Structure formats: C-alpha cells, structure tokens
Write a sequence for this structure.
C-alpha cells in the first residue's frame, strides 16, 4: 500500500494516523479520572493523570501531523451519495479535527491556569506558563464536556462508516481500512 492516498483510498500514513488517534482518544477517555481538581490532581491519581496527559499530548501532535500531511496528500473522492450525506461527512470530519484540537488545548490551558503542570511521558513538567486564573477550573469542565462530545461524534462517525458498508455497500469504510484491495 502506498504512503499517499489515491482517488479511492487513503494512503497508509493517513490510515495509521487515523487508527492510532482513534485508539489513543478511546484509551485517554477510559483512563480519565474526571471530577473536581482535588480529585484529578490527587497524589493517588498521579500515574493515571500522567498517562491521560501523555495520551492527550500525543493526540495533539498526531493532529498536527495529520493536518500537515492532509495538505500534501490526496484525499479520496467521495463515492456517489446524496448531497446531504456528503456535506454531513465533511462537516463531521472538520468538527472532529476541531475537537481533537480543542480537547487537549482546553486541558493544557485549564491545568496551567489552575497552576498545575502538564507532565508528558514522565519526561518532565510543561508549565504552568500562566498565572493562576479563577476561570481555569471552568476550562477543565469545558475539557470534560468537549471530550464527551468527541467520543459521541467519533461514535457517530464510526456508525456512519458501518452504515455505508453494510447498507449502502460503498467504499467509505474500506477506504480507511488497511490491507484491503483498492477496488470499489
């Protein structure tokens, strides 16, 4: 399989980033402690918090790589479908990109405004670069809400791909699955 996309399939790099991002988002969601800052930043939760922060940071980096690669890569043409489906698909993709940016950004800003560092893979603490700010706790709440929205939208995205595969019998799902032939 080619690193770059074709007229009908995503390339292996886009596929790898897509599936790795999906896995990391799911794991970060599942290990998140949630709740008030006293719970999130409790010493007993330090390892889980570090894992969650590291996964979120990696998702952020993967998003930057994915968007940069998207600028150079060929995006497959959509298979024939009603206009509303095509618009919904494109809107969902860009909303997912926005959430993949906003979720880690709100977490980092919320932590820093709450005078907490962000620790990535035990390498060291990043920040806090900003002074304490009362609404920092609100950013942490927004982070949780955006994280929930990301999970729901990603689930809808997956359900739509399965719908296309099972009921419409088009290539929407196959164009992102690795190792499948390039046929329609």
């Amino acid at each position: 399989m080619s690193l770059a996309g074709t007229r009908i399939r995503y390339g292996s790099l886009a596929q790898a980033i897509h599936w790795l991002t999906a896995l990391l988002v799911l794991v970060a969601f599942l290990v998140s402690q949630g709740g008030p800052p006293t719970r999130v930043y409790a010493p007993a939760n330090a390892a889980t918090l570090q894992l969650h922060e590291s996964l979120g940071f990696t998702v952020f980096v993967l998003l930057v790589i994915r968007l940069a690669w998207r600028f150079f890569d060929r995006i497959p043409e959509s298979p024939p479908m009603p206009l509303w489906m095509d618009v919904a698909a494109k809107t969902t993709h860009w909303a997912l990109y926005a959430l993949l940016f906003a979720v880690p950004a709100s977490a980092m800003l919320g932590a820093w405004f709450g005078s907490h560092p962000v620790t990535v893979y035990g390498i060291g603490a990043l920040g806090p670069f900003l002074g304490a700010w009362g609404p920092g706790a609100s950013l942490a709440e927004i982070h949780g809400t955006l994280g929930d929205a990301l999970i729901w939208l990603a689930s809808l995205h997956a359900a739509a791909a399965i719908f296309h595969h099972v009921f419409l019998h088009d290539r929407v799902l196959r164009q992102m699955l690795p190792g499948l032939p390039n046929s329609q």
